[in-house]
Amino acid sequence: MKKLLLALFCSVLLVVPALAQEDETETYVLGVVQPFTGSLGSFGSDFARGIDLAVMQMNAELEAAGSSVRFETASADTEGTPDGAARAVQTVVQTTGAEVIVGPLTTAEVLGAKQFADENGVVLVAPASSGAAGGIPGDNIFRVMYPPDNYAARAFAQIAIERGYENIAALYVDDPFGNGLIDTFTEEFQALGGSTVESIAYSPEPTDLSGEVTRLSANADSLSAEGSTAVFCVCFLADAQRVLQQAQVDPVLSDIDWMGIENLANPELLEAGFADFLQNANFVSVSFADTQTPLTQPFIDSFTEEYGDAPGPFTNYAFDAANIAMLTMLTVGNDGDAVKSMLPFVSNHYIGTAVQAYLDENGDQAIVVYGVFEVAEDGSDFALIGRYDGATGELTFDVEE
Amino acid sequence: MTTTLIVDSLVRSFQVGSLYALMALGITLTMTVIKLPNFAHAEYVTVGAYVALVMSMAGISNPLLVMMGAGMGAVIVALLSHYIVFLPLERRSPSLYTMLLASFSVGLIIRYIIFLFVDRFDMFDKRIQIPLEIWIRNREIGLVLTNVFFWVVPTSILLVLALSLLLNFTPVGREMRALADNLDLARVLGIRVERVKVLTWVLVGAMAGIAGALWGLSTAINPLMGWVVILSVFAAAILGGLSSFTGTILGAYIVGLSENTLMQVLHSYVGLDFSFKPAIPFIIIVLVLVLRPQAFAEIFSGARGLDR
């Protein structure tokens, strides 16, 4: 009996290390914090699919290379709110030990989660946040692909001056994104020689915008008496639809030029019956110009093959953000502080699916080329009519696509 | 403040107030007859809006047909919530808090079912495809009345009047009022309580659905639209003391007026930002609850229950 027990003990001593050797895989958890519910839920779900695709591809490559490192994701829902984002980041960190998170989506969510991330050495790699308020040097937030809105604000200010507008009647959403954009725009517009910017803020979740539009009309009317005036709409797409519906029967707002943020350069607005109105209003918008890189089509193909449909807007940025996060973790491990230190170097050597990443002192994308768009002649889409280079501040028109 | 601003804000107040009245009456009805502060009411509005949207996308442009469809869609959802959740709960004699929580839960379930449907068919922020036309314009005073105004306001007023007639001059209306006054007594008197409750749900659903369709004419439709508007609607119902029919209608117009004309006045003379507007219903709710919990109910009925 003693011999049998001794033999068993020796077997265990021999087998356990062998099993342990087989299971030496080191797993890094990549947090995925996105709005899976609420009005941004469709974005969040699509972003998560882009991130999962990046993880799948990375794991396949690591396996082929014989590496013992693997990545897995842990997700939490921000519900599209700053509080929800803070809770989601906390949940992922405390339940999985993740120190690197891809997300959240909007600037308001990013700012909501910022304090916890900064205080706990957690790195947030936000794929599509662009609000100027999120551009803070030295914090744990990296906005690696999509440039901050102050560049867009400068582009709009230059366009306004180029078009000869002396005054602007603005309507903007009262959140970090809208406030940041309108503040920078006002500053730039007046620095370039513009006169008055009369702004009206509206609640981010409005029941009805008719009062605001009436006031916008009154402001535009009084400013027009003083000089050439245009309307600047810093609104989400759904809000813009309400605004335009009322504006098209308003005698002042239907007889004045309009500018609008990237959300509004959306063919959905044209399909919704606003093509004529926007054409008559010489509507102009700027949009971060996606370019083709060697990774553009492979990403679209892989995504479509994996999920059966094409990636949604900005999903490629989530894919890129996940890749940058994982490449950084491969160099320094799952250590938030080390990732924070290393991530700019990795980003600056990463070719994205639409644009090269290069970070400024705030950890934000610094390669900024916007396309300038107007409604195409046939009213079916928006046509590129110019470009704005954020690095040089140069605005050029009549470019060819 | 210019004349244009005043006139326009009054028009908006009237239009929005009419819609609030249509929605708030449903809340008052469920509160008095069913004894349920129904937060799921918001989702019936959203269901109505989406049914209207789907019908308009299918090429049905007759407003009456669209409104009927929207009303029927919301009635089905209201009845389902009654039969699946509220009726089984009622049999256990729950407290008001339990019913309140249940209505929140039902609302959330409906909302996320709508989200699933909307996500699947990419129907976020779509508009009902009915072109906006100016029917009356007076440039001197800045008056602009569109076809939407003439659908929303008369329809709302007609429906409110029809409901008023039904409640005051039909046997069913009398039975509803009897339930509102004293449920046990109504039972003793032989009123078929369950049948009256079902009819109440039908009325509530129909009004909410039609309100959703009308609301959808002037806004982009998304799964949160009912929820976003529900606090203004509750403010109107609370102004009516959650029991007075006339008080609720008056409350709806007061809320509409506060959010539009009062907001314009405050912006002009105090510089108050429009982003403060969503706080107005809360202020009304708090003021009414603190200063005069019965609100207009006492003025119009002098007692609890629907107006006589």
Assembly level: heterodimer
Principal-axes geometry of chain B comes out as globular
* Topology pattern of chain A, helix = H, strand = E: HEHEHEHEEHEHEHEHEHEHHHEEE
Approximately how much beta-strand content do the residues of chain B carry?
A: under 5%
Number of helices of chain A: 12
Q: Structural class of the secondary structure composition of chain B? A: mainly alpha
Major beta sheet, strand line-up of chain B: 1-2
Low-pLDDT residue spans of chain A: none
Relevant terms:
heterodimer, A: 401 residues, alpha/beta, eight-stranded mixed β-sheet, five-stranded parallel β-sheet, 12 helices, 13 strands, B: 308 residues, mainly alpha, two-stranded antiparallel ribbon, 73% helix
Topology:
The complex is a heterodimer of chains A (401) and B (308).
Chain A: H1 2-22, E1 26-34, H2 41-64, E2 69-77, H3 82-96, E3 100-102, H4 107-119, E4 123-125, E5 141-142, H5 149-162, E6 167-173, H6 176-191, E7 197-202, H7 210-224, E8 229-234, H8 237-247, E9 257-260, H9 267-280, E10 284-288, H10 296-307, H11 315-332, H12 336-347, E11 369-375, E12 382-389, E13 394-397
Parallel strand pairs in A: 1-2, 1-3, 3-4, 4-5, 6-7, 6-8, 8-9, 9-10
Antiparallel strand pairs in A: 10-11, 11-12, 12-13
Helix pairs in contact in A: 2-11, 3-4, 5-6, 8-9, 11-12
Chain B: H1 3-34, H2 41-57, H3 63-90, H4 96-120, E1 134-138, E2 143-146, H5 147-169, H6 171-181, H7 183-188, H8 193-217, H9 225-239, H10 245-269, H11 279-291, H12 297-301
Antiparallel strand pairs in B: 1-2
Helix pairs in contact in B: 1-5, 1-8, 1-9, 1-10, 2-3, 2-4, 2-8, 2-9, 3-4, 3-8, 5-6, 5-8, 6-8, 9-10, 9-11
Structure report:
The complex is a heterodimer of chains A (401) and B (308). In chain A, 46% of the residues lie in helices and 18% in strands. Chain A has 12 helices and 13 strands. In chain A, β3, α4 and β4 form a beta-alpha-beta unit. Chain A is elongated, with a radius of gyration of 25 Å. In chain A, 53% of the residues are buried. In chain B, a hairpin with a 4-residue loop joins β1 and β2. In chain B, α2 packs antiparallel against α3 (63-90). Chain A binds chain B through residues 37-39, 41-42, 45, 174, 200-208, 210-212, 214-215, 217-218, 237-239, 241-242, 245-246, 248-251, 268, 272-273, and chain B through 2, 4-5, 8-9, 12, 15-16, 112, 115, 119, 122, 124-127, 129, 131-132, 134, 139, 142, 144, 146, 218-220, 222-224, 228-229, 232, 259-260, 263-264, 267, 273-278.
